């Protein structure tokens, strides 16, 4: 666990994971199709991406927008990422911006980027330069489960609720949320360990069915993607434990409490995502729909969930 992995090797392992496992592809396809539907007939868009990391979601969308009927819209992305340790806390979020700007230039898409390296709960509406002429998309793929919850400090609002409240104040056209469906955020070790064991049993079983055991990249996936997360859940407490997933039903209650309303799933988008998974991935991957969430899992165990939201007090579409 103490071995350090280079960024190049990490990205290679990530590509293997994305090829073997449908969940990232599922999330990106769902999100990007939702965005395309939201910007129909409009010429400007602003994406606020919580947890942008390396920005791997956006080259595919930029390429698709390059052939948009009537020409590509103007795209503005605000990438929010946690500060990196060391003397250059904004290095990753800025490098992501440079990379995405190069992609946009190659595809001929008008593009602006603003990177913010800060704790998510400290980023307010005033930091985002929201333009009412732009379609506003708020996007988060997977990383909401790393926000601190009520288990750390009960004397103040949890960062999760603060971020959701800030999103409501932005009044986005659509807020796209993709979360890990987990129940191993308990403050008590034994139930947390048991639930994590169930989760990672499914993940390792999935890797066994899709990837050769002698693959060096598979070892990187298991050590650097799965292993570090599993170790954090088992070995860390308080602020040191950053892996805190909740079930989609708990997120649903939390979102409603924050003043958000759930949008109905688009049947065409659901159909497109399901067909993509069926055609490209192992037959034991499953999809389902519940409470307007699109669910993804392995052999019946639901591991991820995604849904779309807007401010509850926004004017409803007629």
CATH architecture: 3-Layer(aba) Sandwich
The number of domains: 1
Radius of gyration: 19 Å
So, the CATH homologous superfamily? Vaccinia Virus protein VP39
> In terms of per-residue confidence, which ranges show pLDDT below 50 for 5 or more consecutive residues?
none
Largest sheet: 9 strands, mixed
Number of helices: 9
Broad structural category: alpha/beta
SSE pattern, N- to C-terminal: HHEHEHEEHEHHHEHEEE
Could you tell me the number of beta strands?
9
Which geometry do the CA atoms define?
globular
**Under the CATH scheme, which class?**
Alpha Beta
Straight-line N-to-C gap: 54 Å
**If you consult CATH, what is the topology?**
Rossmann fold
Q: Percent helix among the residues?
A: 40-55%
Strand content: 15-25%
User: Mean pLDDT, nearest integer?
Assistant: 93
Overview of this structure, please?
- By secondary structure, the protein is α/β, with parallel strands linked by helices.
- It is built from nine helices and nine strands.
- The protein has helices at 7-20, 23-38, 58-65, 91-107, 159-170, 189-210, 216-235, 248-257, 267-280, and strands spanning 44-50, 74-81, 111-117, 135-141, 174-180, 260-262, 285-290, 293-298, 301-311.
- Strands 1, 2, 3, 4, 5, 6, 7, 8 and 9 form a nine-stranded mixed beta sheet that branches.
- Helix 3 (58-65) links the parallel strand 1 (44-50) and strand 2.
- The radius of gyration is 19 Å and the shape is globular.
- The mean pLDDT is 93.
Which characteristics define this entry?
single chain; 318 residues; alpha/beta; Rossmann fold; 9-stranded mixed sheet; 9 helices; 19% strand
């Amino acid at each position: 666990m103490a071995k350090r992995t280079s960024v190049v090797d990490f990205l290679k392992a990530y590509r293997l994971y994305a090829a073997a496992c449908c969940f990232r592809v599922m999330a990106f396809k769902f999100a990007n199709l939702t965005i395309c539907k939201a910007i129909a007939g409009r010429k400007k868009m602003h994406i606020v991406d919580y947890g942008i990391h390396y920005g791997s979601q956006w080259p595919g969308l930029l390429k698709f927008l390059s052939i948009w009927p009537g020409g590509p819209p103007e795209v503005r992305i605000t990438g929010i990422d946690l500060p990196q340790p060391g003397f250059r806390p904004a290095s990753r979020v800025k490098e992501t911006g440079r990379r995405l700007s190069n992609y946009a230039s190659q595809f001929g898409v008008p593009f602006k980027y603003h990177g913010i390296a800060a704790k998510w709960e400290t980023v307010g509406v005033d930091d985002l330069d929201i333009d009412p002429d732009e379609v506003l998309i708020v996007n988060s793929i997977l990383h909401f489960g790393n926000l601190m919850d009520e288990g750390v400090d009960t004397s103040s609002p949890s960062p999760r609720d603060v971020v959701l409240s800030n999103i409501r104040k932005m009044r986005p056209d659509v807020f796209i949320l993709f979360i890990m469906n987990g129940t191993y955020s308990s403050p008590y070790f034994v139930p947390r360990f048991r639930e994590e064991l169930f989760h990672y049993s499914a993940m390792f079983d999935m890797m066994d069915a899709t990837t050769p055991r002698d693959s060096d990249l598979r070892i990187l996936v298991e050590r650097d993607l799965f292993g570090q997360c599993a170790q954090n859940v088992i070995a860390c407490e308080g602020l040191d434990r950053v892996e805190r997933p909740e079930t989609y039903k708990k997120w649903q209650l939390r979102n409603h409490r924050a003043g958000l309303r759930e949008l109905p799933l688009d049947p065409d988008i659901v159909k497109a995502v399901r067909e993509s998974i069926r055609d490209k991935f192992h037959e034991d991957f499953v999809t389902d729909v519940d409470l307007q969430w699109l669910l993804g899992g392995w052999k019946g165990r639901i591991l991820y969930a995604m849904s779309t939201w807007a401010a509850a007090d926004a004017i409803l579409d007629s």
